[in-house]
Amino acid sequence: MALVSAKEMLEKARDGKYAVGQFNINNLEWTKAILQTAEELKSPVILGVSEGAGKYMTGFKTVAAMVKAMIEELKITVPVALHLDHGTYEGCYKCIEAGFSSIMFDGSHFPIDENVAKTKELVAVCKKKGLSLEAEVGAIGGEEDGVIGKGECADPDECKKIADLGVTMLAAGIGNIHGKYPADWLGLSFETLAAVKDKVGKMPLVLHGGTGIPTEMIKKAISLGVAKINVNTECQLAFQEATRKYIEEGKDLVGKGFDPRKLLAPGSQAIKDTVKEKMEIFGSIGKA
Ligand code: 13P
């Protein structure tokens, strides 16, 4: 199956009261583990690519070519969107050209009028090309590719301004943070989420910083209109822990245990287990 825009899968999720997971990819192992899990569980999936990860993988063209070929070779039948995560204005155009099926323009650090102007321009471009577009209001806290925020909450009126431009989905800060949540984290602001929902109507909402949010909060967020949840750090931590265990147990020193395919296998399995666990909580299993 060819890459799809995230529009249809997210509208279905919103109507069916579940969420589609966006899992960020870093390399071949990540991509393969996520695609195989989605296929096995018959779940739609969004592969997220940050600008930093895109650069690491030698560029967005490499990423698009790898993902498209892998979908074909692995005979993936579930809907897969390839999505730029927290894109800059220039990055959005690079991904559109490279063949991504979905992009996020993160104009949250611009004054609202500039965010509106740039988002509006990208809405028109994406509509023409059949891509889905995610916009953001109110920076999501935490550290992502060197950018640090504080778990801000978006202004619902600004959310409406951006939603009215015709974006496919909207990421609104509701106290969520990228990376691990600090011990003194106050939790998600459902008050903000409800106020945003009230202003933006049926627009599918996106929850960033999916790592470490308690299950009950995730379920409540879905009931209030969240249809896409982003997970990145949790897969990295699972990969790290499994790889550390393999080496600490000295398995790389036995026989051909140094073979990269063996060395990376426990980490890949840990990513699969994490993705499965998230898809169960999000409710997307069997919805492909
Ligand atoms: P985490 O790394 O906290 O899971 O956040 C991922 C994310 O929101 C990507 O945009």
What does this structure look like?
The chain is α/β, with parallel strands linked by helices and 288 residues long. 48% of the residues lie in helices and 18% in strands. It is built from 12 helices and 11 strands. The strands form 2 sheets. An 8-stranded parallel β-barrel has the order 1-2-3-4-5-8-10-11, surrounded by 10 helices. The longest helix has 18 residues. The radius of gyration is 18 Å and the shape is globular. The mean pLDDT is 95. 1,3-dihydroxyacetonephosphate (13P) binds next to β3, β11 and α10.
Tags for this entry?
single chain; 288 residues; alpha/beta; 3-stranded mixed sheet; 12 helices; globular; binds 1,3-dihydroxyacetonephosphate
Layout of secondary structure:
Layout: H1 7-16, E1 20-24, H2 28-41, E2 45-50, H3 51-56, H4 60-73, E3 80-87, H5 89-98, E4 102-105, H6 112-129, E5 132-137, E6 141-144, E7 147-149, H7 156-163, E8 169-172, E9 177-178, H8 190-200, E10 205-207, H9 215-223, E11 226-231, H10 233-248, H11 260-263, H12 265-282
Parallel strand pairs: 1-2, 1-11, 2-3, 3-4, 4-5, 5-8, 6-9, 8-10, 10-11
Antiparallel strand pairs: 6-7
Bound molecules: 1,3-dihydroxyacetonephosphate.
Overall pLDDT metric: 95
Query: How do the SSEs run, as a string of H and E?
Result: HEHEHHEHEHEEEHEEHEHEHHH
The span between the termini is 12 Å
Radius of gyration: 18 Å
Shape: globular
Sheet/helix structural class:
alpha/beta
Report the helical percentage: 40-55%
Q: Which cofactors or ions or other ligands sit in this model?
A: 1,3-dihydroxyacetonephosphate
Strand order across the largest sheet: 1-2-3-4-5-8-10-11
Q: Which stretches are poorly predicted, pLDDT < 50 over at least 5 residues?
A: none
Number of strands: 11
What percentage of amino acids are in beta strands? 15-25%
Number of helices: 12
How many strands, which pairing sense, and closed or not: the largest β-sheet? 8 strands, parallel, barrel
